[in-house]
Amino acid sequence: MTRCPFHPAAHDQEGKLIPPRPKGRAKRASALVKLMFGRTNLFSALNDKLYRGWLGESNLLVHKAFLVNQPDLVRKVLVDEVMDYPKSPVMRRALEPLLGRSVFLTNGALWQRQRRMIDPAFVGGKVRQVFGVMRECADDMAARFEQAATGEPVEIDPEMTHVTADVIFRTLFSVPIAQQDAQQVFEAFGRYQRAAPFASLRSLLGLGSVKRNSAFDTAGKDIRALLLPFIERRQAEIEAGTAPDDLATGILTTADPETGHRFDAEEMLDQVAIFFLAGHETSATALTWALYLIAMDADVQARMRTEAREVLGDRPIEFADLRQLSFTRDVFREAMRLYPPVPFFVRRATKASVMRDRKIPVGSSVILAPWYLQRHERLWENPHRFDPDRWASENGKERARDAYIPFSIGARVCPGAAFALQEGVIILAELMRRFSFEPVAGHEPVPVMQVTLRAGNGVLLKLRKLDEETA
Ligand code: HEM
């Protein structure tokens, strides 16, 4: 992955943290060259003007693409006229070997039917049911961190990937990631992510086809082959009346209220693959950036620790604690504002329309960009500042309603949003009460667009066990 120029971390006049962000492109020509040749960091091809603009337009290579960055237009595409802006076929072709016809890729009536069968598994009460599993995973993570807490730099990203994969595996199949067959799935996902080809502007704009590579396709097929036995076993348990009450059982036993249809093994495989991919990669990204920001801001870290200790003491976390961990939640939300795990997503216009006096022809790509909307310089006060307290301000409350879309909005909103928020708060609170985090001098994480918004050079932090520190 090419490194792009970036603004390093700094402090503003009020001493508040401005974390690192990529510098947009300076010259059109160089962006075009990068666009045409090779795999480049998407950010280096975009323009910093987008932090202030309402509608970006690109006419590269006859294909029209529009970056929609104005709250009412974002609503038009994602909420009011959602069926006129389906998912782009380019993304579907790239992801099909792993995801088949998963809810993430489908459109129209098939997608609507899939959502009717999946959504019941994610309603409030169901998310509450998985609280205990999330707590177990957070405890196991803390035990691993105890081994790593030597004061030496630790790679945070793989740790967060491990714990979130554990959460999704245990909630789906009641199996810990440490079990050998689950471990194999986890490793195959690692290979898949490393081989992912869609990090360029060309793929975002939907220009031509996304070039798949054989490592990517093979890893996708391997994952499916490894997941299938879990599903078949579960179907047998459901028939025998011995199935555990988890996410997989919930989805496999839910009939579409309109047609009575239930997922067969192949259809379920498509859905399980996306739950695993969307459900751990995104959460891991969000938590990794959150820990980096917390490590960089000693005041925020101290306040989180006080909150965790006051609310939890040294007993296990309970569901009722979540409401009281409000500062922890605000830090997590702020991390997803500055570093949204899905910074861009694309739709295809199937109906001609006009936005800000510009014609949007049928076939254009319409790009939604949490990265730019959530840092919009005309909408947010101090948009590039890390400020978890903003959510209590008038500006923060207003923007939370119209310019904060880390989980998207509308009918295609992420079904796992409540799940991810619950998981994030549990993990952060558990870490804050037991460990301290410090940045590593000279190591600056640089955001790059991979499957999600990762730090291209990783996030390295030093961690210490608090008991030892205070002893
Ligand atoms: C911090 C964590 C997460 C973030 C930031 C996130 C973000 C998103 C976003 C932005 C989308 C919309 C993408 C698009 O329309 O192109 C999405 C869709 C989706 N997410 Fe999440 N997600 C997270 C966690 C999860 C979890 C935990 C699950 C499941 C367990 C999940 C399952 C899905 C599925 C199935 C879709 C497709 C929905 C559809 O197209 O109808 N996500 N997510």
Structure characterization notes:
The protein is of the alpha+beta class and about 475 residues long. The protein has one domain: Cytochrome P450 (Cytochrome p450, Orthogonal Bundle), CATH 1.10.630.10. Helices cover about 50% and strands about 10% of the residues. The chain contains 18 helices and 15 strands. The chain has a four-stranded mixed sheet. A three-stranded antiparallel sheet has the order 7-15-12. Helix 6 runs antiparallel to helix 7 and helix 12 packs parallel to helix 17. The longest helix has about 30 residues. It is globular. About 0% of the residues have low confidence. The site of protoporphyrin IX containing FE has 22 residues, from helix 12 and helix 17.
Question: What is the C-level CATH assignment?
Answer: Mainly Alpha
Sketch the major β-sheet. Answer: 4 strands, mixed
Bound molecules: protoporphyrin IX containing FE
Number of domains: 1
Radius of gyration (CA) equals 22 Å
* Coarse morphology: globular
Q: Count of helical segments?
A: 18
- Quaternary state of the chains: single chain
- Structural class determined from secondary elements: alpha+beta
> Can you name the CATH architecture?
Orthogonal Bundle
* Widest sheet, order of strands: 5-6-11-8
Q: How many beta-strand elements?
A: 15
**Portion of residues within helices:** 40-55%
Low-confidence stretches: 29-39
The CATH superfamily is identified as: Cytochrome P450
